[in-house]
C-alpha cells in the first residue's frame, strides 16, 4: 500500500517538531506536519521561554538593593512593560521563525492548519484536504482550563498573561502549582501588588515538604500576599476592576485575575474515539512505553499523553518514537529520575524522591542544611537557601536531591547526572567541594539531620 507520507505529525510544538525533524533529516523519511497556531508550541510561544524571560525581567528589582549594599550608587527606577513586551514579542517571532526553518531545512512539508485523524492512515486538514501516511504522530500538547463558576470568564490564564496591554497594579493568581507560583514571583518582582489563593494547605503539592515550606515562606517575605486554604467563590466586573469574593469571606478588587489551576490534554475533536484510541481520566491519549496507541499506526507523545509534562520529556519521547519506528530499534522512554527546575523566587531544583515519598518506600537518612547565602547575607538580606539529600539506608544511594536557592535549576542539572548514575552518599562525600559556592554543602553534610 502506498501513502503520501511515511509520517504525518499533528502539532508543531516541542515533541512534534523534534520527531518530524529527526525522522526526515536523519532518517530520510517523507514527513508532513500540521500546526494550527504558532510553530514552537507551548514551550516557545506561551510557556518555558517567555516565562523565563519574564523571570529574568522580574529579578532585577531585587538586585538593586543588593547592589546598593555592595556599594553601588544605583537607584531603582520604573519598569516599562511596553519596552519589555515589544522585545518579548520580537524574540518569540524570531524563535518561531527558527522552528519553521528547522522543518523546511529538513524537508518536512508543513501545513498551517488544524488536522484530525479520519482513519488509521489518513489525516484531514481544516481545508478538507486528506493526506495519507504510514504512521501518524499526535503531538497536540495541552491547554489551561479554568473551572466554571460565576464570573469565571473574567479570568485570564497563562496563555494571555504574556500579552497584557499594560502591567496591572494589582493581580490575583489562583493556584498552587508551579505555573501559579512562578507567575506570583514574576508579577511581584515587576512591582505588581500580587495576591495568590491556593485551596490546599501548602503550595507545590508533590514536591518535598521542607522545600515547599521554604519557598512559601520566602514568597511571603518577598511581598506576595499568599492565602492558603482559600479559593474564589464568585467574580464580577466592577468598572475596570474585578470584584472577587473568596471562601475566607474576603471581598476584594483586582485589576487582573489569572487562573493556573490545571491543564487538559488537547485530545478532543481529533477523531480518535471513532478509531478506538483509548483516552484516560483527564482525556489524555493512552499509549504504551513506546508511545504507541491501541491503533498500531498511531502514536502520541508529549503533554497530550499526560505522562511527565515537560519540554525535554516531550523531546525525548519524540526521539524515542523515531528510534523505534524509523530505526527499527524499539526504545522505551525512561521517565525515572527526571531533574526539573521551578522558577519561583527562590528557585527550586529537584530530582528523585521527596523525603515523604522515600520514607514511605524504605528506611532513609535525611541530610539537609538551610543557611543565608554569602551574597544575600553580606547585603543584609534574610533569604535562606536549602540543600537536601535523601539517602537510602540500605543501598546508600541518593534517592532525592532538593535545592532551593538562586541558580538551583542550573545546579540540579549536574546533580541530576550523579543521582541518575546511582551515586551513593559516599560518592557525593568523595567529591571535593567547590569553594565558596552554595552547592558545596551538597558534598560536605556529614551527619543526617534525621532518619525515617
Ligand atoms: C506557563 C508554562 C510554563 C512552562 N514552563 C516549563 C519549563 O520551565 N520547563 C519545561 O520543561 N516545561 C515547561 N512547560 C511545559 C512545556 O511547555 C510542555 O511540556 C511542552 O511544550 C509540551 O510539548 P508538546 O510537544 O507535547 O506540546 P506543545 O508544545 O503544547 O505543542 C502542541 C502544538 O500542537 C498544536 N495543535 C494542537 N491541536 C492541533 C491540531 N488538531 N492540529 C494542528 N495543530 C494542533 C498546538 O497549537 C501546539 O502548537 C511550561 C508550560 C506552561 C504552560
From TrEMBL:
<keyword id="KW-1015">Disulfide bond</keyword>
<feature type="binding site">
    <location>
        <begin position="175"/>
        <end position="182"/>
    </location>
    <ligand>
        <name>NAD(+)</name>
    </ligand>
</feature>
<feature type="binding site">
    <location>
        <position position="262"/>
    </location>
    <ligand>
        <name>NAD(+)</name>
    </ligand>
</feature>
<feature type="disulfide bond" description="Redox-active">
    <location>
        <begin position="43"/>
        <end position="48"/>
    </location>
</feature>
<protein>
    <recommendedName>
        <fullName>Glutathione reductase</fullName>
        <ecNumber>1.8.1.7</ecNumber>
    </recommendedName>
</protein>
<keyword id="KW-0676">Redox-active center</keyword>
<dbReference type="InterPro" id="IPR016156">
    <property type="entry name" value="FAD/NAD-linked_Rdtase_dimer_sf"/>
</dbReference>
<dbReference type="GO" id="GO:0034599">
    <property type="term" value="P:cellular response to oxidative stress"/>
</dbReference>
<feature type="binding site">
    <location>
        <position position="303"/>
    </location>
    <ligand>
        <name>FAD</name>
    </ligand>
</feature>
<keyword id="KW-0560">Oxidoreductase</keyword>
<dbReference type="InterPro" id="IPR006324">
    <property type="entry name" value="GSHR"/>
</dbReference>
<dbReference type="InterPro" id="IPR036188">
    <property type="entry name" value="FAD/NAD-bd_sf"/>
</dbReference>
<comment type="similarity">
    <text>Belongs to the class-I pyridine nucleotide-disulfide oxidoreductase family.</text>
</comment>
<keyword id="KW-0274">FAD</keyword>
<dbReference type="Pfam" id="PF07992">
    <property type="entry name" value="Pyr_redox_2"/>
</dbReference>
<dbReference type="Pfam" id="PF02852">
    <property type="entry name" value="Pyr_redox_dim"/>
</dbReference>
<dbReference type="GO" id="GO:0045454">
    <property type="term" value="P:cell redox homeostasis"/>
</dbReference>
<feature type="binding site">
    <location>
        <position position="52"/>
    </location>
    <ligand>
        <name>FAD</name>
    </ligand>
</feature>
<dbReference type="InterPro" id="IPR001100">
    <property type="entry name" value="Pyr_nuc-diS_OxRdtase"/>
</dbReference>
<dbReference type="GO" id="GO:0050661">
    <property type="term" value="F:NADP binding"/>
</dbReference>
<keyword id="KW-0285">Flavoprotein</keyword>
<dbReference type="GO" id="GO:0004362">
    <property type="term" value="F:glutathione-disulfide reductase (NADPH) activity"/>
</dbReference>
<comment type="subunit">
    <text>Homodimer.</text>
</comment>
<dbReference type="InterPro" id="IPR012999">
    <property type="entry name" value="Pyr_OxRdtase_I_AS"/>
</dbReference>
<dbReference type="InterPro" id="IPR046952">
    <property type="entry name" value="GSHR/TRXR-like"/>
</dbReference>
<dbReference type="InterPro" id="IPR023753">
    <property type="entry name" value="FAD/NAD-binding_dom"/>
</dbReference>
<dbReference type="GO" id="GO:0005829">
    <property type="term" value="C:cytosol"/>
</dbReference>
<feature type="active site" description="Proton acceptor">
    <location>
        <position position="435"/>
    </location>
</feature>
<dbReference type="GO" id="GO:0050660">
    <property type="term" value="F:flavin adenine dinucleotide binding"/>
</dbReference>
<keyword id="KW-0547">Nucleotide-binding</keyword>
<dbReference type="InterPro" id="IPR004099">
    <property type="entry name" value="Pyr_nucl-diS_OxRdtase_dimer"/>
</dbReference>
<comment type="function">
    <text>Catalyzes the reduction of glutathione disulfide (GSSG) to reduced glutathione (GSH).</text>
</comment>
<feature type="domain" description="Pyridine nucleotide-disulphide oxidoreductase dimerisation">
    <location>
        <begin position="338"/>
        <end position="445"/>
    </location>
</feature>
<feature type="domain" description="FAD/NAD(P)-binding">
    <location>
        <begin position="5"/>
        <end position="318"/>
    </location>
</feature>
<dbReference type="GO" id="GO:0006749">
    <property type="term" value="P:glutathione metabolic process"/>
</dbReference>
<keyword id="KW-0520">NAD</keyword>
<keyword id="KW-0521">NADP</keyword>
Amino acid at each position: 500500500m502506498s501513502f503520501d507520507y511515511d509520517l504525518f505529525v499533528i502539532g508543531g510544538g516541542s515533541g512534534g517538531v523534534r520527531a518530524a525533524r529527526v525522522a526526515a533529516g536523519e532518517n530520510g523519511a517523507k514527513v508532513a506536519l500540521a500546526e494550527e497556531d504558532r510553530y514552537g508550541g507551548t514551550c516557545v510561544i506561551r510557556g518555558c521561554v517567555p516565562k523565563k524571560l519574564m523571570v529574568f525581567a522580574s529579578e532585577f528589582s531585587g538586585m538593586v538593593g543588593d547592589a546598593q549594599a555592595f556599594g553601588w550608587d544605583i537607584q531603582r527606577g520604573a519598569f516599562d512593560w511596553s519596552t519589555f513586551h515589544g522585545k518579548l514579542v520580537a524574540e518569540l517571532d524570531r524563535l518561531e521563525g527558527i522552528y519553521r526553518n528547522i522543518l523546511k531545512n529538513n524537508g518536512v512539508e508543513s501545513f498551517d492548519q488544524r488536522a484530525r485523524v479520519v482513519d488509521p492512515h489518513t489525516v484531514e486538514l481544516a481545508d478538507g484536504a486528506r493526506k495519507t501516511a504510514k504512521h501518524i504522530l499526535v503531538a497536540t500538547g495541552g491547554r489551561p482550563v479554568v473551572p466554571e463558576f460565576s464570573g469565571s470568564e473574567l479570568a485570564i490564564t497563562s496563555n494571555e498573561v504574556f500579552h497584557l496591554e499594560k502591567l496591572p497594579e494589582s493581580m490575583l493568581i489562583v493556584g498552587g502549582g508551579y505555573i501559579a507560583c512562578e507567575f506570583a514571583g514574576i508579577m511581584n518582582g515587576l512591582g505588581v501588588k500580587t495576591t495568590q489563593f491556593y485551596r490546599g494547605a501548602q503550595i507545590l503539592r508533590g514536591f518535598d515538604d521542607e522545600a515547599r515550606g521554604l519557598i512559601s515562606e520566602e514568597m511571603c517575605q518577598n511581598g506576595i500576599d499568599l492565602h492558603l486554604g482559600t479559593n474564589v467563590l464568585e467574580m464580577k466586573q466592577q468598572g475596570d476592576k474585578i470584584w472577587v469574593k473568596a471562601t475566607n469571606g474576603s471581598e476584594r478588587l483586582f485589576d487582573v485575575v489569572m487562573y493556573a489551576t490545571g491543564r487538559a490534554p488537547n485530545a478532543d475533536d481529533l477523531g480518535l474515539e471513532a478509531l478506538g484510541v483509548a483516552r484516560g481520566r483527564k482525556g489524555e491519549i493512552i499509549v504504551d512505553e513506546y508511545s504507541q496507541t491501541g491503533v498500531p499506526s498511531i502514536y502520541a507523545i508529549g503533554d497530550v499523553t499526560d505522562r511527565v509534562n515537560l519540554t525535554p520529556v516531550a523531546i525525548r519521547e519524540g526521539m524515542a518514537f523515531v528510534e523505534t519506528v524509523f530505526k527499527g530499534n524499539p526504545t522505551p522512554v525512561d521517565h525515572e529520575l527526571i531533574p526539573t527546575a521551578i522558577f519561583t523566587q527562590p528557585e527550586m531544583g529537584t530530582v528523585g524522591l521527596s523525603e515523604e515519598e522515600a520514607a514511605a518506600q524504605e528506611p532513609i537518612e535525611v541530610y539537609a542544611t538551610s543557611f543565608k547565602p554569602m551574597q544575600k547575607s553580606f547585603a543584609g538580606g534574610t533569604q535562606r537557601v536549602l540543600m537536601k539529600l535523601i539517602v537510602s539506608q540500605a543501598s546508600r544511594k541518593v534517592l532525592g536531591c532538593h535545592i532551593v536557592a538562586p541558580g538551583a535549576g542550573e545546579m540540579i542539572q549536574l546533580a541530576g547526572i550523579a543521582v541518575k548514575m546511582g551515586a551513593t552518599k559516599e560518592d557525593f562525600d568523595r567529591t571535593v567541594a567547590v569553594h565558596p559556592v552554595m552547592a558545596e554543602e551538597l558534598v560536605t553534610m556529614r551527619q543526617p539531620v534525621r532518619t525515617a
